[in-house]
Amino acid sequence: MFETIDYLQFGNENQQRAYSAIKNLGIMRSLSEYYPTLCGTLPIGIDIVHSDLDIIMHVEEFSLFEHKVKALFGNEQNFTFKKTSIRNTPVVKANFIFEGFEFELFGQAQRVKEQYAYLHMIVEDSILKHHPNFKEEVIKLKEQGIKTEPAFCALLGLEGDPYEALLEYGKQNGFI
Fold first, then answer.
1. Per-residue pLDDT, 149
2. Most buried one in 36, 114, 160, 174, CB count within 10 A?
3. Helix, strand, coil percentages in the chain from 3-state DSSP, rounded to 5
4. Are the CB atoms for 135 and 85 separated by under 8 Å?
5. If pLDDT is split at 50, 70 and 90, which confidence band does 1 have?
């Protein structure tokens, strides 16, 4: 379901606005060789006012990616680009504002469907389908400043690192 953004055009008002912004930016087309995939809270309808649009990608050559992203989006409002490491894995991130949304382009040398952001979204979406009452509770926790994965873990009574615990829960329940 999340391979394209077409589902957004039939979603809630914010999802429709995001669809329009993503289409107007042309990001899915212009970065198609990196398999751009929108992840996070907006695709599953638990976004809050300042939620960003996380687009994850499979990037092997960071320098080529950096050059292309800067050429395409370097003039966008508040543009930044950085190379860093998450869980001992090198990653690249570009952030900017477009049509009222903060975009975060995230790349690492791993297939999109194996990246934590994608897996977490799949698990969270599955949990929401099994526990529809969680949606409002997760949103309330997020509005209190709690990140998404810790919010789900709190509702499920999961302990430890919430990013790992959520994946383990997803595996145990056949979501991933």
1. 95
2. 36
3. 50, 20, 30
4. no
5. confident
* pLDDT single digits (tens) 44-82: 999 998 889 999 999 999 999 999 999 999 999 999 999
User: Residue 144 in 3-state DSSP?
Assistant: coil
Report residue 151 as tokens: 């919010």
Tokens of 74: 């370097």
- Domains parsed from the chain with CATH numbers: 6-112 (3.30.460.10), 117-172 (no CATH)
In degrees, to the nearest 5, what angle opens at C-alpha 8 toward C-alphas 127 and 18?
A: 110
Contact assessment for residue 98 and residue 151, using Cβ atoms and an 8 Å cutoff: no
Decide: helix, strand or coil at residue 86.
strand
Q: Which residue has the tokens 């508040």?
A: 78
